[in-house]
Design brief:
The complex is a heterodimer of chains A (217) and B (249). With 217 residues, chain A is an all-alpha fold. Helix content of chain A is 85%, strand content 0%. The model of chain A has no long low-confidence stretch (mean pLDDT 95). By secondary structure, chain B is α/β, with parallel strands linked by helices. Chain B has a domain of 169 residues: P-loop containing nucleotide triphosphate hydrolases (Rossmann fold), CATH 3.40.50. In chain B, the strands form 2 sheets. A 6-stranded mixed sheet of chain B has the order 6-7-8-3-9-10, sandwiched between helices. In chain B, strands 2-1-4-5 form a 4-stranded antiparallel sheet, with no helix packed on it. Classes of the chains: A mainly alpha (217), B alpha/beta (249). Chains A and B meet through helix 1 and helix 3 of A and helix 8 and helix 10 of B. Bound molecules: adenosine-5'-diphosphate and magnesium ion.
């Protein structure tokens, strides 16, 4: 095997692990919100315990990347690919933490009916999941257009966050007893909003990997 | 001293080895030349102290200034130029004489006769080349008995004894072990405080370790020239990218 193909094989391994990590993170977000809506406490607990798996993957990919940096001394786009991967896994790991945080909050809801069906929160979750998926996909495919689309998609998530906030404020005004649940929903919406921000960060690292420019968002 | 080259073309007979090269090299920096064998790195380096003058059938056009002075001007004294622009080669080439006489060679040529003065220059040059401690007790011994790494530092000391402004180094560590290489790289970082250093290297990691700027040559052209950090993290030209990432044929 030539040095070049040895290097490419090592990078392909990192790519595969990144895809696996991304899938796990998507699933975590999905399950955290489904568990909330279905009031499935077991599923919430699963999300919290499965966060360990993502932590382990992050650690593994980090080791792989550091080894490549040490052994292969990559330069140019090779160097940018590896550095971008190193940065991206930090964002993915944070997203997984935030899915676990959502589940922690879901477990704090009592048995009372919801003050409002979390339809906007579900929508935010789906937009955020797609953004995370596309951020990693744009890295694998070096798809700069897809990476750049994340910024405006994040605006949509921010708008939804404002909508949720407005609705919850309204509900608290109507009846102070709504405040307990409203605060929990509010925190969940905030986490989802942050998750979308992390997808934007990943997109910025993709831009760096492809073009060499990193804009600080 | 700054080096400024404009529209440099060089032919060996019918073969054009350098094609319209424009380059400014900064004072007190290390500049590395990289590129595949035969792309013209050594040829370009040798122009700077007019070593190509000796080559039959070699023709050069363009303008070449060092510290603002035209080095091909009729009034330029080539011996003086070579004193100001020292050169170190891939294979250490100590003269078959004592360590002391190797270093004293250039100052003697330029008329230094007093023993005390020569002693001072010898010690100073050997110290600057980080080899004084290793040889101070055997200055009268033959230079040929030294190790390869020591011989190379001796050659650097010999070049320094002429008190040059510029040091040209053509693959100075490619015949050396990692420890000797490390010593010479450390030496370059020291020397660049006072000199301009241009080094040809096939070792990319060496370029990233020691060079402030890096120039990539390919088929007689200067393809890309930038800060080392920029060139190795985000080269502009596809050919640079392919070469440094090992994608080339
Ligand atoms: N004295 C010479 N006569 C004819 N051709 C030469 C001479 N020196 C070098 N060349 C040719 O010029 C080209 C550049 O050589 P050189 O500067 O030694 O390349 P590099 O240092 O990048 O390996 C090569 O094709 C080489 O064969
Ligand atoms: Mg050469």
């Amino acid at each position: 095997m030539s040095i070049r193909s040895k290097y490419e094989a090592e990078l392909a391994l990192v790519f595969n692990k990144l895809i696996a990590m991304c899938r796990a993170v998507e699933t975590a977000i999905e399950k955290s919100v489904t568990a909330l809506v279905k009031r499935d406490r077991d599923m919430s607990a699963e999300v919290i315990s499965e966060d360990k798996y993502v932590d382990n993957l992050e650690h593994e990919i980090e080791q792989d990347c550091l080894k490549i940096l040490l052994m292969e001394h990559p330069v140019a786009s090779d160097f940018r690919d590896v550095s971008a991967a190193l940065k991206m896994i930090t964002d993915l790991e944070r997203i997984s933490d935030q899915a676990a945080d959502i589940s922690e909050i879901a477990l704090q809801f009592g048995d009372e009916d919801f003050i409002k069906e979390p339809e906007h929160i579900t929508l935010m979750a789906h937009l955020a999941i797609d953004m995370v998926k596309d951020s990693v996909q744009s890295y694998i495919n070096r798809d700069i257009e897809l990476a750049r689309s994340l910024d405006s998609r994040d605006d949509r998530v921010d708008q939804l966050f404002e909508t949720v906030k407005g609705d919850l404020v309204e509900l608290i005004r109507k009846d102070g007893k709504n405040a307990d649940q409203a605060i929990l929903f509010m925190m969940i919406a905030k986490y989802l909003e942050r998750i979308a921000d992390h997808a934007v960060n990943i997109g910025e690292w993709v831009e760096y990997a492809v073009t060499g420019c990193h804009k600080i968002g | 001293m700054n080096i400024s080259v404009r529209n440099c073309n060089l032919w060996y007979g019918d073969f054009q080895a350098l094609k319209n090269i424009n380059m400014d090299i900064s004072n007190r920096e290390v500049t590395a030349f990289i590129g595949p064998s035969g792309c013209g790195k050594s040829t370009f380096l040798k122009i700077l102290n007019r070593m190509n003058d000796l080559v039959d059938g070699c023709r050069i056009t363009g303008s070449f200034h060092i510290g603002g002075v035209d080095i091909f001007d009729k009034s330029t004294d080539v011996n003086l130029l070579r004193k100001k622009v020292g050169m170190v080669f891939q294979k250490p080439n100590p003269f078959p004489m004592s360590i002391y006489d190797n270093i004293a060679f250039a100052p003697r040529t330029f008329g230094v006769r007093k023993k005390a003065e020569l002693d001072r220059i010898v010690e100073d040059s050997l110290r600057r080349a980080s080899i004084w401690d290793e040889v101070k007790d055997r200055l009268k011994k033959s230079a040929l008995g030294m190790s390869g790494g020591q011989q190379q530092r001796l050659c650097i000391a010999r070049a320094l004894a002429a008190n040059p402004d510029i040091l040209l180094m053509d693959e100075p560590t490619s015949a050396l072990d990692p420890i000797s290489t490390g010593k010479i790289e450390a030496l370059m970082s020291e020397l660049k405080q006072e000199l301009t250093i241009v080094i040809v290297t096939h070792n990319m990691q060496q370029a990233t370790r020691i060079a402030d700027k890096t120039a990539f040559f390919y088929l007689g052209e200067l393809i890309e020239y930038d800060t080392t950090e920029k060139l190795f993290s985000c080269p502009t030209d596809r050919r640079t990218e392919n070469y440094i990432t090992g994608r080339f044929g």
